[in-house]
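Could you please consider the sequence and fold appended to this message?
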Amino acid sequence: MSTRDQIPDRHLRVGVVGVGQRADMAALVNRSGAARIVSCADPDPRGREDARRLFGADVVVHDRYERMLDDELDAVFVLTPDHLHTEPALCFLAAGVAVFVEKPLTITVADCDALLMAAFRSRTRLYVGHNLRHLPVLRRMRELIDDGAVGRVRAVWCRHFVGHGGDFYFKDWHAQRANTTGLLLQKGAHDLDVVHWLAGGFSRNVVAQGALAVYGDNPRRATQETVPPGQRMPDWFDPEVWPPSALRDLNPVVDVEDISMMLARLDNGVLASYQQCHFTPDYWRNYTVIGDEGRLENFGDGIDGDAARVDVWNRRRSGYRADADLSVPVVASDEETHGGADRALVEEFLRFAAAGGPTETSPVAAREAVAAAVAATTSLRSGSTPVDVPPLDPAIVRHFAEHQPAEGADGSGPQPR
């Protein structure tokens, strides 16, 4: 069923707070045939200029998001830098406007819980942009798990090779703990949500190690005086600059780790591991799911339109076998961002904002990804001490299970067989 079939005849009036790196995703709203971007806010003149370029000359543009409350909005996208998610999201939830918050939900557990509580008290619809749940290769992995391809899930591993990490995360606000808590959260919350989703549970105890191993020694730092105002990552990205030590104009402050490794025990007994490195020559994610009757993993992730596949092994032999027992090709669109996942994400939010109902993403799961990442970051910065992940208020969990049910009653996804 199309988005148009699921929402009222009147176009939804949608706003955007923060017209920056992810604003292209919001531009998909005007292509849906069901909604229009009518209002935007950004304190940066470049953001306000981009709003008119992306959404049309008729869009109302403000320098402060509070002024958008007068624009009769049905829904709003909060696409600000991560540390600025909380206040605008709280503002629009209190006003009864359905809210899309870009992932990660926030950079602290307290702010996550405040947003979920605000949605609970106001009964306003809250949605989090974990687009990887719509990525074709990961959806195929979910289907194989549901079909029993590896039996009962007992472990999930993820390796994230962030080949453009220096350009993407160490030349702007991402490089500072004050803005992200750390890249294990900022980048890792996306992967941890998928790990939880594939495993059917949430992390409850974690331990981690990490280091600022490469970019911390790079002396080529920008200064506050030489950083051009309004610049964004594509303005400086050059894939030919290699190795990472050759990068120039790193952020004046770099205090986040560029390599992190964590282990987790989930509430259903599944064990998980996550490794993230920002100075590899390749850029992709590899997930491995191990069950009591086999294992599966992806080769390629299809994010940039490249073909990917999921291989399954469940016959015992000695040595590595490139000829898997089952190999499932996954072809992602090269015409849409993130293999079509962003389009599916936007369409789901528009339908949810208008009519409610189940969603593939989950605010509860988004909070749990942040909570696991915060605990892991605490562990790696305190001598790898094991850290427990605080559970969410059961009343909040029940609220979202009833009003925004995912396949798992707790919002995590499939339950291990």
About this structure: Residues 133-338 form a domain with the Dihydrodipicolinate Reductase; domain 2 fold (CATH 3.30.360.10).
